[in-house]
Amino acid sequence: MNIHIVNIADIDVIWQTVGPRFNAAIEKCGDDISTGELWQMCRSGNAFLVIAIDDTGILMAAIVRFERWSNGAVLRVLSLVGEQIEKWSAAVKAYLADLAKSNGASRIVAEGREGWARIFDEPKHIRSTYVMEL
Fold first, then answer.
1. Which end of the chain is flanked by fewer CB atoms within 10 Å, N or C?
2. Residues 40, 78, 29, CA angle at the centre, nearest 5°?
3. d(C-alpha 106, C-alpha 4), whole Å
C-alpha cells in the first residue's frame, strides 16, 4: 500500500474516482461543506488530497489542511472516505501523525460520525454539531 499527497496536477484525474465518494459521504452525514469546495481547496493548494492506494485501487481518500488555532497549529481532516478500513487505518493514522509533526502541528482535528474512534483510538471529544431545520 502507498499513502501519499496527490500532486495538484493530478487532482482532476483522481477526483473522478474520489469525488463521488466524498459527495456520498457529505449527502449522508452533513452538508456544511460541498464536494465542489473540497475540490477547489485541493486544486488551489489550500488543502491536500491524501490517498491510500494498493493494487486494487484507492482504499482511502482524505482532505486535510493545516490551521492555526489559538494554542498552536493543527492538521485538520476536512473529509475522509474509505473502504476496508482494517487495511489502511493504522498506516493512515501514522502517516497523518508524521505529516502533522513534521510541519509543526501537535494535534490532528476531525469532525464527523462516531466512526472516527475506529481510526484514532485516543481522540478527545470537544464538541458535536447539531442542525435544527426551521
1. C
2. 105
3. 20
